[in-house]
TrEMBL record:
Entries under Gene3D superfamilies matching the protein: Porin (2.40.160.10)
Predominant cellular place of this UniProt entry's protein: membrane
Keyword Nucleotide-binding: no
Signal peptide location: 1-20
InterPro entries: Gram-neg_bact_OMP, Gram_neg_porin_domain, Porin_dom_sf, Porin_Gram-ve, Porin_Neis
Single GO biological process annotation from the record: monoatomic ion transmembrane transport
Name of this protein: Porin
Localization, UniProt: Cell outer membrane
PANTHER family: MAJOR OUTER MEMBRANE PROTEIN P.IA, PROTEIN YDDL-RELATED
Membrane topology field: Multi-pass membrane protein
Molecular-function GO terms, alphabetical: porin activity
Keywords: Cell outer membrane, Ion transport, Membrane, Porin, Signal, Transmembrane, Transmembrane beta strand, Transport
Amino acid sequence: MQKKTLAVALAALFALPAVAQAEVTIYGFMAASVESAKATGNGDAAKEYKRTTRVNSDNSRIGFKGSEDLGNGLKAVWQVENSLSNYDNGAGNVWAGRNSFVGLSDATLGTIVLGRFDSAYKRLTDTGQDLMVNTSAGNQGAKNIFSRGEDRYTNSISYTSQNWNGLVASASYKADEADGNNNRWSVAAQYTLEGLKVGLGYDQQKNVAAADTTFAAVKDLKKNEFYKLSASYKIADTLLIAGYEWARGDAKVGSDLKQDDWTVGVQQNFGKASVRLSYSALGKLDGAPSADDYKASQWVLGGTYSLSKTVLAYAYATKIDNKAKANVKFQVNQLDNGAGNDPQAIGAGLRVNF
């Protein structure tokens, strides 16, 4: 009897992990590229980067996610996502440093999550404008040429609706746990109709320190505001993209700041291959002395080839033209270039999705 009881107990013990992990999905990708890059042009040799060869991890990541059915259309959801940048001697790997959260999802009412999560502004205004995302030739982000109001909120709560005949809406709130004076929030919506996608969003943050503002002019701000409209249209094997963003910074001292940015591009597919071209620009910084010196632009030319359903080869060339006081950087694999330097890169890589 004791042997039978022990056998049953051991069987149950070894069965428990299998049950607990039944709803866990492991996902992500490993990528690497080799490129030639430089950042020169401002005349300060101490802040210029002469041409160098680099091997990059291109934003590689691994994630774990799952759900549990609670009945009546309700389920618990969770996710832990991590950067893998250290494998090419990079830095910045933090456990759960990417989108990581826990929440509830209802089949009718939508999904609410708590934790670290991309803002509603970032998620729903992305309709495909970043044609070479996760490479040095990417163009979106707070320190990049376009979509400078996007962010991944920490200490946040986010609600996303279900799809209502092509319309999805979302709202995000980032709590300031230090003194409560610089909370951040955003609202956004995305509409899809056949090959057309349109995104619209608003993001606001109060009491922004000079080190954190996306504006190149260094000053503390009472409030940052971003407005963004984006669209993409796919017809047959052609994808057309466009986006416009307007930003306002209410200064604590001196003139308020205003600046816009925009992008246009096209992707043409040829079976397993594609060619991608985009041009983006950052406008003058109204309210700052020498406003035109804060302008910047970026050309991107890229191509991809699908070796299988999960393996993608890619190549790219890009150049950022920073005016005297602009300091736009690569999306990933950034060079710490000073203002006025012009980063440029040409490279090729391989990505394996899992």
